[in-house]
Amino acid sequence: MHTLPRLLFLVFVTLCALVHGVPTPQGPGGSPLRQPSGQFRTCSDVPGGSLQLTSLNISPNPVVAGENTTVTITANSTADITQGAAANVTVSLGGLFQVLDQQIDLCRAVTTLELGTGCPIPAGEKNVVLTREVPAGIPQTTYLVRVEAVNGDGSNLACFEGPIRIVQPANGG
């Protein structure tokens, strides 16, 4: 498997947790989410959406290549997530060099990750915990991840961005 698909896997896990009723941080101007190392923020250049993320935790943080990572998200959605909902995920090094730009069908992602049966996903509070093994081949560095999600009708669901640091295991992997 090439490095980019492996990196996509980690981003995909984070996004899929987000999509199962999870959103973006509250507050104008990019309020930080409570996350131990690094801060995810709402995108300052995209209007707020119907998903309000109240907490996001990635454990371990930093993420260790070749080991399990757990993403825990709590969020509240004021609108159902409908068929056709999608997210654009971009990953870059230092916010400058883009290494990934991927469109994801959110309804299909929920089913694929066994988080539900797809869309519609009812409005309301959601608590999602997802644990997956991160592929060992992901290079050690800090990636800037940006996720822009829209509902089936084209309205904004959420937009957030922040760093995800990946390290190699202490024993060298």
From TrEMBL:
Domain of life: Eukaryota
GO molecular function: sterol binding
Keywords, in A-Z order: Lipid transport, Signal, Transport
Coiled coil residues, start to end: none
Cleavable signal peptide: 1-21
Transmembrane segments: none
Domain MD-2-related lipid-recognition: 40-164
Any one GO BP annotation for this protein: sterol transport
The UniProt record lists the keyword Transport: yes
Record carries keyword Chloroplast: no
Pfam family, one: E1_DerP2_DerF2
Quaternary context: Monomer.
Similarity remark: Belongs to the NPC2 family.
Function, as annotated: Catalyzes the intermembrane transfer of phosphatidylglycerol and phosphatidylinositol.
Descriptive protein name: Phosphatidylglycerol/phosphatidylinositol transfer protein
Lineage of source species: Eukaryota, Fungi, Fungi incertae sedis, Chytridiomycota, Chytridiomycota incertae sedis
